[in-house]
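User: Structure tokens for this complex, please. No commentary.
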Amino acid sequence: MPTLEFKGKQFVYSHHLGVPFRELKVISDKSLPAKGQKPSLDDNLIIHGDNLEALKALLPTHAGKVDCIFIDPPYNTGNEGWCYNDNVRSPLMREWLKKSANPVDKEDLERHDKWLCMMWPRLQLLKELLSERGSIWITLDDNEAQRCKMMLDEIFGEENFVASCIWHKMDSPKNTARYFSEDHDYLLVYTKNIAFWELNHLPRTDEMVSRYQNPDNDPRGPWLLSDLDARNKYSKGLYSITTPKGRVIQGPPKGKYWRISEEKFKEMDQDGRIWWGADGNADPNIKRFLSEVRDGVVPQTIWNWKDVGSTRHAKTEILKVFSDTDEREIFVTPKPKALVARVLAIATDKNSLILDSFAGSATTAHSVLEANKKDDGNRRFILIECEDYADTLTAERVRRVINGYPYTGTQRDELHRENITWSTFEKKHSKVLDHVASIENLQGHEYDKISKQIKDGVLTVTGERKVKGTAPGLGGSFTYCTLGEPIDIESLLTGKGLPTFEALARYVFYTATGQSLAKVGEPAPDGFIGETDLFRVHLFYQPNREWLRSNEAALNAERVTAIEQNSKGGKRAIVFAVAKFMSQKELTARRIEFCQLPYAVHRILGD
Ligand SMILES: C[S@@+](CC[C@H](N)C(=O)[O-])C[C@H]1O[C@@H](n2cnc3c(N)ncnc32)[C@H](O)[C@@H]1O
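Assistant:
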């Protein structure tokens, strides 16, 4: 398979392996726990920090557990002000980045290389977090979509590519565009393992349902016509048919075949499943009953703004939540809730875990909470945002939609829209003006103001009214976290910033087994923290430098006996401690593998 080469690739190739693990630090006063509960890492999470480190911090708890990843990374338009400053250890890389411009702008000839270097390790970690049945959805535009697809083919495997959806995001063309009005973005969809992925069909829209009619009052309910003939060759599909009025149809139209055999046709006619037109003499068609068609419709790759919202809708949604904030200060690139809702409808069930590591204004959380409200679901979300607005925008939106919020604003209804050029205006101006005046006369009383505008060759008439109300709370809760100190050799040696027992337990369990530890209990006499099909893992540790230096911290005969007594099923034991008072030979005979803290902690995955 051809692969994409880019500057820096050899240095970022394994960068995700060397990123230090950090503890997730709960910030209680920014969290919103459920009533009577304490903030907990098992709740929905909003993490303030760089997603490279935050994703790594999630591995010990969430590897292989995320069902759906939706990300909306910087598109690399050259105007977003994003910087590439991952701390990649290679001197060549440092030299390159020292000399090149940050933030990454349009003039930067290496902007694509930098974007790919930024995304590569993050996608590697996202893949680790995804469950075997999970999928990842990435919004992009033509700045990076094609390069990203090649990169995803390499990381996720070409066979796991599902679709490149088109989101028709503009509800009116941009007439100021130099060449084309760019009306769409992409959603690239990959699975962790296509063999295990099952998508949900989408519910029929009201418009689809309304196409089903029941002109003959069939007791089976509304139906839709489908053709009796098709181009596919069918040996039993050539026979003559006589209509109820006696007209003989010699056979299917030229070059076509009836879809069903004569026997089947007669059977269906007997059962009232053939429609001969209102007069009983038309060419026959098959009635397809709404009650009998499959529950949902297969998702299509073109997503129209009428169904999933436009960029304008997204802005209106966020303005409603933050109607007390100056419009100019509001986040500029949100996605509409309905867009994320469609991803959730296709790729999640009521208990799914959803991750968005480029969270922005928290549209993903908003959509997850709405989906839960709608079907009484228990979906959970994890959001990551690096900017300072992680609290004031990302988490604040979630607080507001959980609790409910008052809003004031201007409701704008478009009453008329017409393309207009000077020549049409010259010819038809009195007609146009009359039409606008009639709109004002008829609908003016419903609004505080009717505004008229000609912009970019489009005339719009808009009714505006002040609205005030309270959006009811959707319920839910979340825990707000930041990233703690790296869990590394240095901190264990010096005693500075020693990790908690819980954080170290998760970390050593993950590094030893590659699996995440669901729950960490209190330290046990035999140091047991968790097990997999093959191993039982034990940890003797207290975040106390004196204790770590004392004999108390060592693996001794008493502890080995306790480990042996509690061991079931002959699994091997992996024991983490700072020292041991028995030889490895003796331990091996007892099926115990000793890993010395702190050095053993850094048997980084992938070695
Ligand atoms: C295009 S916006 C996402 C908008 C979001 N989908 C919404 O509906 O509001 C991208 C976000 O990712 C954040 N971001 C960019 N690089 C990041 C990083 N390395 N770690 C965490 N967040 C990052 C940006 O600060 C920005 O808020």
